[in-house]
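[09:14] KT: can someone run the structure on this one? pasting the chain below
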Amino acid sequence: MFDRRLIENWDWILLLLLMLLAAISIANLYSATYPIRDMGGSQIFVKQIYWYMIGFSIFLLMTTFNYYKLLQLAYPVYFVSIALLILVLIIGKTTSGSQRWLAVGPISIQPSEFAKISIVLVLAKFFGEGDRYQEYGLREILLPLILIGLPAVLILKQPDLGTTLHLTAAALSILIFVRLNWKSVAILAVPTICMSPLVWFILKDYQKARILIFLNPDMDPLGAGYHINQSKIAIGSGQFWGKGFLNGTQTRLQFLPEQHTDFAFSVLAEEWGFFISIILLLVYLFLVLWGLNIAKDAKNRFGSLLAVGFVAIAFWQVITNVGMVTGLLPVVGIPLVLFSYGGSSIISTMAAMGLLMNISMRRFMFSNGAGLPER
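[09:31] RB: done, structure tokens below
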């Protein structure tokens, strides 16, 4: 029997935030692709609308069942995502030197985007079924570290350093949220940090170049530093109020690279200026805070951990992308969540937001002794 309290507890604020981000994204993408219609710009704009239609449909679908049922599906979903990541390395589609996509007819999907959700599910199951007051030491978090490391290594081999770091940051956010024995963690963290410089020797040449350009942007302004220099010119030239819709010179003259994906925020900053850029960041901030509020009000530990994980995915993606396009972080090829063009990103994020809505809708449920909502 349908519970009317689900409708009464529908989270209209979360839905409004998502619709607002979608509207700004579509308007910005229209501008970003306007000067390249002969190269498929209008098709990209139309595709984004379709992706959002599919995304909101999946968002609604994710609210139709009790989220605690995902406890039984966490490991199957995780291993399916691992299988897809392995499949990418075998028969994946290569673009710009990276093998990240699986071709399904005319559509290309990026399994690493869905791996983020799977790692949140499996970590929420692992920590959600235990004693909420248990203190986790090195021995207790060994399995979670393996669960995090396996997809991270597979994504790194594509190679996709940006997504690897993003997935790892989101997963570690869940570890920080649970009760850790920090003395034990420090025993592992100190030698790991000391050995981190060795990572330099396994990086690809272009990845090393991005780090060097981050440290010295003027080192190669027409080569490896071109992307970030053009991005900073676009953002700075927008000043406070911007140049106006469709009037961004860096965008119109196509000096700004990847302006519909990784550098979509630069388009917004050039045309709408500092004021609207801050408004967009405040929307993201409110989304993160609202998600954490949902985590706080969740009636079981599993729901809280799911909410924290999904919020962490969005948070670190915003931090990484905005930091990247403004020169505060190295360029790592991370799109801006629910803003840049990309079907896999939109669908996976809307699925996560749908589960966040699911958790919010069922916050009225009573909990049993195991910390799970009563059926």
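[09:33] KT: thanks! Residues 136 and 180 are 5 Å apart (CA to CA).
[09:34] RB: yep, looked fine to me
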